[in-house]
# Entry
Amino acid sequence: MAEKLQEHELGDFLHGHLKDNRYLIVLDDVWSPADWSCLAKRSSNDPDCLGSVFPDGGKGSRILLTTRYKQVASHADVRSIPHEMRLLSKKKSWDLFRRKAFLDIDAESYLPDLKELGEKMVDQCNGLLLAIVLLGGLLSKNMSHIEWKKVHDNMSAYLAKEGQIAGVMTMLNLSYIDLPSYLKPCFLHLSLFPEDYVISTRKLLLLWISEGFVLQQDRQRMKDTAEIYLNELINRNLIQVVRTSVNARVMECRVHDFIQELAIEKAIEHNFIGTNIVVDPHLFPSSSRSLFSSKSRRQSIYSNFERDSCPHLCKLDCDPMPILEKIPNLLTLRLRAGSYLRKEMHVSANGFPRLQILQLLRLKELVWLNILKGSMPWLMQLEFDNFKTEIFGLNELLNLIEVKISFSSLLAMIVFHKIEDSFWGLTRIAGAEGGMHICRQKGLTLASSKQALEQLADFLEQCSRLIFV
# Structure
């Protein structure tokens, strides 16, 4: 009968059926406020049937609604506080996995090494309920130590191959498709960060602004807009909050492993980035070049060779610039986390024809960056944290307008007076690490730009002398 009814007729039918009864309605996975409004609203010419399809007859009826988005829950009932599902604790994660993997049999009756492997794999799920359920269901089919070890050694790839992870990735993929256009580049940008990396939201918002993801307005309003974008991604459960301030503003965040995998997949698909974990060229001789796509617009290179679970990872032992500088559409390059062993880097003439942002962080061995004339013609932002690194050719970067220097020593502030009344403005970066944010005046002539860059080079040299004398 219900299949033959029009939308408004179905609403009237449900209302009439429910109004004299006590009921519990469960609505699963409501995607938007508009969807809720469509479900709850009735269109009828009957004055007795106007309003919500769910009558409140004072009988203790309830509606349970699940959604990924906090705004949907708030829209459905402004008087109620939405119940936010939390990630499972380590203990609860293991209890859930144990019930799924070992079924009704006590886990202690199995070999200790099986339990040890299980605990390690559960830790990789990071409290994500659906991932734990799928993992437990897969492992329950085979209690062989060999099979469990296969899954443990390459969990994500193994699950994807077996098709067991399809449920998680399908749900995550739907979440990405549902993102509005202005949030998609912000989400894809998260693929640049290493796995399990705790992200400073202050830096993240500034990166979004510098990349042009935030609508062009005055700087303060752009920061506010960027923070709104961040909170939207948090409310969609695509970003996890790590630390908040006393006034509940998000200070640090991270991305779940599965969500990061989706971000990397989509970013590569759209040529948004090329993210590279540096591997041992002796074990993987073709990897150093094949990982770099000529279509990538951003490149992030980092090393996590210290992780016990990935003993094959190591630092890059050759200058990556000769390869990277030939990527024609590369806009952003970040080298960090000890991903380079040598002391020198060289950028040849005409290298990096479109690069706009260069970030060199925690490259402790790097002492020399040589930039030949004609390279990086559009570089606008430079960030580094090692004053030992001498940059030659800085005066050729005529479009450089912003320099960020992260360092713990405050001695460089002593020479602040030498630059504050010139072509540059300098502000101190707050926080535990500290640092300087140097911005060039706008609208300078070619001659003034060259003079400003010479002044900047001299300033950085003085800072270096003060800190390392």
Observations:
- Confidence is low (pLDDT under 50) at residues 45-50, 277-291, 304-315.
- The radius of gyration is 27 Å.
- The CA atoms of residues 33 and 72 lie 5 Å apart.
- The longest strand covers residues 435-440.
